[in-house]
Amino acid sequence: MMLNDLTSIKETELAARKKIILRCCMAAGCMSSDAKGVKQQLDRAVADAGLQNEVEVRGVGCMKLCCEGPLVAVDPQDSLYIKVTAENAPLIVAALKGGTADLPQADPNAAFFAKQLSIVLANSGLIDPERIESYIAVDGYQALHEALHEMTPKDVVEAMVKSGLRGRGGAGFPTGLKWGTVAKSPGAKKYVVCNADEGDPGAFMDRSVLESDPHSVLEGMAIAAYAVGADQGFIYVRAEYPLAISRLQIAIKQAKQMGLLGAGVFESPFNFNVDLRIGAGAFVCGEETALMMSVEGKRGTPRPRPPFPAESGLFGCPTLLNNVETFANVPAIYRKGAEWFAGIGTEKSKGTKVFALAGKIKNTGLIEVPMGTPLRTIVEEMGGGAPDGGTIKAVQTGGPSGGCIPSQHLDTPVDYESLGKLGSIMGSGGMIVMDQTTNMVEIARFFMEFCMDESCGKCIPCRAGTVQMHHILDKIVNRKATPRDLAKLEELCDMVRNTSLCGLGQTAPNPTMSTLRFFRNEYEALLQPDPYGLPASSAANKTELATL
Amino acid sequence: MFSCRQGEWRLCGPAIDIFRPKVKPHSFMLPTLSLENQRNAARVLQHASGDKRFKILEVHMKKHQFRQDALIEVLHKAQELFGCLEDDLLLFVAIKLKLPPSRVYGVATFYHFFQLKPQGEHTCVVCMGTACYVKGAEKIISAITQQHKIRAGETTPDNKFSLLTARCIGACGIAPAVVYDGTVTPRATPESALGQINQWVKK
């Protein structure tokens, strides 16, 4: 495989393009609403009408507006049919001759779509994820070719530093810096690992990227491997995502057949193999050291850092570990240039971020916006606000490690620093909207129960602390707690946050602390008076207890 | 892990004595395995030789070159073949991958995805991700618990169905989601879930 082979595949693919393309969403959300049946009916209707030479029915990845699935888009008519069923799918084909079918449609120019800026999801919903040719036709694998043949590994790392990309897994560590550290670490064997263990409940961006555009992740990993000098990659995927796993398997096989993975990529001396590792349902495995333990086939328990994975990671070798979305950004950065990427977003947070919008909101689905977009734009303009005339009470970001942002702070721009200031985190991108009916104390208890169940049990603050905090939250919800319990809860939050071994424990109190900060009245309304008449404040409480 | 099987051990005691001379436990295991586990290992290997599924599992392990770091992959395959991971199966995997049984048992119990007990004929998995929770997934669970007297993670006494919960299946756009026998159903309600389950129970 050389560059001219790549361009000839692209030209063949573009030449074979038919006049009309019916794009049928085949991502997990729509699949569960019988998208497969819709596609079959579309295929049959096209065959019955004798339009095979003019119309292509293409199964594509996520088209973002998940709540209205299954979705069918017609190119170049620019119409987007929503909630299509297998019965009314033939009507879409019948209407191709002129006009549009009398079926519910979404406006492709509505704010939900118009305000998006797609880099990671640029191909999502356009290309067929199960055909590598479809990815090559949109300039796929060109960035890898350019990196291998026109850049040294050092140039690749420098361009990444210049782009200002930060890790999309949640913590926001500068990607270029990480690549540079792994590249500098001594060692003959190095690994590149893609973290696709999207454990945050309420987040599904990584699943969509893997289901819709798996090759962009593979290409990003290959470029990263070249930059750091690795020859083996692993993708650690959750077992809960069977469709993403099967599409990745297909993608890896096709890339290997074409010589884009394996030995001598693009006829250069660079070798790169990618293997899948299937997770088995442990949230803590999203933590980097725990994930590597799991890849090695062990219990996924974290270990203290340093040494950081960049120095001693998988099987004791230097390891580069990035999130799916981070890798998916990589091909575009090399194709369009680091300056272009650095021009998007805010001063400290570059590029775009994909969010999974869900919960009590009209338009649920995927959105990709430039960093720095105000939350209000996302929730009210794009998401359409709360359904059924409700009002938005809070937006939860970052899952069990994040916090709840109350409605009065909706003008906050989304970037790593601003969300951090409000006691939440960017997280991997789950955004759950809550309306006035949501009880914030119950939400805090829900997340604490999650952390309690998912604590791996290695360090005591997390193992025992989460159980105690859950116990107190449960007491508060059941109206059995006193102000002293609340003070104890705050004390525990502080202790667990500061003394836990890994990110899970350190961030487990976040949902409780942020709801306590913004919705303290809800907690206090549930408290019972202290039977001994002791004062509520934490400091006073401690001295009182000491004298008891 | 295997000491708790004593009741069963007594039952098949005589049979093992017959098999022991024929099937030798792997020499590498002698120092690490207790005498009881050595006998169990012999029994498992004998038992496995007659079951086609063990053969398929062994082929799968061979595909991974019997690498010890492929343990989780192997357990996935084992669960797919057998439905759940019972002690004998775990011991078989331990022998073949040359791992201590404690390590295999430790991994199998650490991850939620692995089931150590047999499941009912049907499974109903209610997603308990945040989006589903906010949209009322808990009501679905409590409705099922009230009507069928089982809690999440349990199987009905007649073995008709198991009620399970998932952390998040990533179908938040169509919350609340329920998975019936592997098929994801969007926008579930307590009524729709009970309707589906009553169909199973009736049969």
Key structural traits:
heterodimer, A: 548 residues, alpha/beta, Glutaredoxin, Rossmann fold, Ubiquitin-like (UB roll), five-stranded mixed beta sheet, 43% helix, 14% strand, B: 203 residues, alpha+beta, 2 domains, 50% helix, disordered N terminus
> What is the string of SSEs of chain B from the N terminus onward?
HHHHHHHEHHEEEH
Given helix and strand content, the structural type of chain B is alpha+beta
Spatial order of the strands in the main sheet of chain B?
2-1-3-4
Largest Cβ-defined interface? A-B, 54 and 40 residues
Our estimate of the beta-strand percent of chain A is 5-15%
Can you offer a commentary on this structure?
The complex is a heterodimer of chains A (548) and B (203). Chain A is an alpha/beta fold and 548 residues long. Helix content of chain A is 43%, strand content 14%. Chain A has 4 domains: 18-107, Glutaredoxin, CATH 3.40.30.10; 140-342, 3-Layer(aba) Sandwich (Rossmann fold); 352-438, Ubiquitin-like (UB roll); 441-547, NADH-ubiquinone oxidoreductase 51kDa subunit, iron-sulphur binding domain (de novo design (two linked rop proteins)), CATH 1.20.1440. Chain A has helices at residues 3-15, 28-31, 35-48, 89-94, 111-114, 132-136, 142-150, 153-163, 175-184, 205-212, 214-228, 242-257, 288-295, 324-336, 338-342, 375-382, 416-421, 440-454, 460-477, 483-499, 503-507, 510-518, 520-526, 538-547; strands spanning 20-25, 55-60, 72-75, 79-81, 105-106, 191-196, 232-237, 273-278, 319-323, 352-359, 365-370, 392-397, 403-406, 430-435. The radius of gyration of chain A is 25 Å and the shape is globular. Chain B has 2 domains: 3-110, no CATH class; 122-202, Glutaredoxin. In chain B, helix 6 crosses helix 7 and helix 9 (137-148) packs parallel to helix 10 (190-202). The chains are: A alpha/beta (548), B alpha+beta (203).
